[in-house]
Design a protein that fits this description.
Blueprint lengths: L6 H6 L7 H16 L1 E4 L3 E7 L2 E7 L2 E4 L5 E7 L3 E10 L5 E12 L4 H7 L4 H18 L4 H6 L1 H16 L4 E13 L1 H66 L2 H11 L23
Antiparallel strand pairs: 1-4, 2-3, 2-5, 6-7, 7-8
Length: about 290
């Protein structure tokens, strides 16, 4: 079955004029309604301008209403943002210091209107960056180059405190401040390296000396122990000998001595005893 529609029918179709005005009215209403609504993203606030004038009230995140064609809304980011900058300064001992700085910050909700009204949306370049550089220079000048390295955390805390005192009044909140790196001149780096080498050599020499002292003390202690042991052994040997002599002496009686004399006599009487004449045991008088 073929369709009876023909292209000529389209040409012959005419849009009813009486519908044009209602359609325009509906379109205008939709446009006005859309203009009366604004959506503020999460983590942001809306600053309301009425014919270019900043209102004191702010719009919170979500769906908000405004007067069409009369009011406009500027979105202010209140999320934590990060900036990284290079800041040059001079230390207390006149060393050039290049610092890499990272700052986490945000705009306070209640300060959105004030910041937009007094500074505008370019507050980062107008307020924050100059304040960071100035704070870095002021605190760096209080420390020597070596102290900047050894007291890095303390230096960072002081810079953060100085920075907060400069930007808090504008409604900028410093969440975190980090010194990413300190960089010094090539001459200073060479001097630091030479000092570290000298300190390492000194530590090595001191360690070797201490080891030699320990070894010498150990050897001396060993000799003392050996001498004490030898003396103790000699003492015990002498005590043992003395005890043996005492036992022997105690065991000697007169009868035992006479017995030993008899056992050792060769059978001959002495020829003389004192001034008495020599008597022969055979009964003859010796001349």
């Amino acid at each position: 079955m073929k369709s009876s529609f023909k292209f000529t029918d389209v040409k012959q179709f005419k849009f009813p004029k009486k519908l044009i005005f209602p359609i325009l009215i509906v379109a205008l209403i939709v446009f006005i309604a859309a203009s009366a609504v604004t959506i503020v993203p999460a983590g942001n606030t809306g600053v309301v301008l009425t014919l270019g004038k900043v209102n004191s009230n702010i719009m919170s995140e979500g769906l908000n209403f405004k007067i069409p064609f009369v009011q406009s809304v500027k979105i202010i980011n209140n999320k934590i943002q990060v900036i990284e900058i290079e800041a040059n300064a001079v230390s207390k001992d006149l060393q050039t210091v290049s610092s890499s700085i990272a700052v986490n910050y945000r705009v306070g909700y209640e300060s959105s209107v004030t910041i937009y009204k007094n500074i505008g949306s370019n507050y980062e370049n107008v307020i924050l960056l100059p304040a960071v550089k100035e704070s870095v220079k002021a605190i760096t000048a209080k420390y020597t180059a070596e102290q900047l390295i050894t007291k890095r955390n303390q230096v960072g805390d002081e810079i953060k405190e100085a920075l907060e005192s400069k930007v808090n009044e504008y409604g900028v909140v410093i969440e975190k401040f980090n010194i990413v790196n300190f960089d010094f001149s090539a001459e200073f780096n060479a001097a630091i390296e030479a000092k570290q080498v000298a300190e390492q050599n000194l530590i090595k020499t001191k360690t070797e000396q201490e080891q030699e002292i320990v070894v010498a003390e150990a050897q001396a202690k060993k000799k003392i122990i050996e001498a004490e042991a030898e003396a103790e052994a000699t003492k015990k040997k002498a005590q043992a000998q003395a005890e043996a002599n005492r036992v022997i002496t105690k065991s000697l009686s007169d009868d035992l001595i006479e017995y030993e004399k008899i056992q050792k006599w060769n059978g001959e009487l002495p020829l003389a005893t004192g001034g008495d004449p020599i008597i022969d045991i055979r009964g003859e008088e010796a001349e």
